[in-house]
Every structure is written in C-alpha cells, then in structure tokens.
Design goal:
The radius of gyration is 26 Å and the shape is elongated. The protein has a domain of 56 residues. The chain contains six helices and no strands. It is mainly α.
Length: 120
C-alpha cells in the first residue's frame, strides 16, 4: 500500500515522535493524525473549515495548532530535528560572485564613435 501524499512516512514519524510534547489534562488524541492534518492544510492551502472529517473536527485541530504555536512546541521540534547543511555554513568569496561594478569599478561603456556606427 502506498503512503498518502499529505501524510508523514513511518521514517519521518520515527524522527518526530520522541519530540512530541505530552498532552496534560485530557487525552491528547493521535499526534500523528494531528500533524498529518497540518500537512494537509499546508500542502493544499485550504481554509481550516475545509479540513476533511477524517482528520477530526477542524476547530479542534485549529485550537491545538494555535496552542502549540503559543507554547513554542513547533520551534522546539524544528530545533531538535534541524541538521545544518555544510554547504550553507561554508560560504566564502569563491561561492559569492559579484559584478565588478558592485565594488565601485567603473562600468565599461561602448565608445561614442562605435555607438554612432551601431546606431546608423
């Protein structure tokens, strides 16, 4: 069976699951289904009210999303999972090319005599 387009794969869920915050008070529901609902919203760009019933009540999903945003849970997950790419870290002058004019050099222009020949 293939993985649905908007859902987390088992490998990605295995990385995220240890960083999911415990839900205090009432039962938390399925955190994976909650994240799949967020992926569906983000991928489709649909309004919250158009969330398929399969993911649960749209308002409950939205309220949990807002709570996680307020508490910084997403930032904690992203910070725990981020892996710096050495290519992005090691930027130097060999990978950043700029035009000579950007450092104050004069622009080379077509001499006026040649410009008159080209215009004719």
């Amino acid at each position: 069976m293939t993985q649905p387009r908007h859902c987390l794969s088992d490998a990605k869920w295995a990385l995220i699951e240890p960083h999911i915050p415990p839900r205090k008070g009432r039962p938390g529901g399925d955190a994976r289904l909650f994240l799949d609902a967020l992926l569906w919203i983000g991928t489709t760009g649909s309004p919250w009210r158009d969330l398929p019933v399969f993911f649960g009540n749209w308002n409950h999903v939205y309220q949990r999303f807002a709570y996680w945003c307020d508490k910084g849970h997403f930032e904690a997950i992203f910070n725990a999972l981020k892996k710096p790419d050495m290519e992005e870290i090691m930027i130097d002058s060999t990978s950043c090319k700029a035009h000579q004019a950007s450092s104050g050099a004069e622009k080379k222009t077509v001499p006026s005599r040649l410009a008159s020949l080209v215009a004719a």
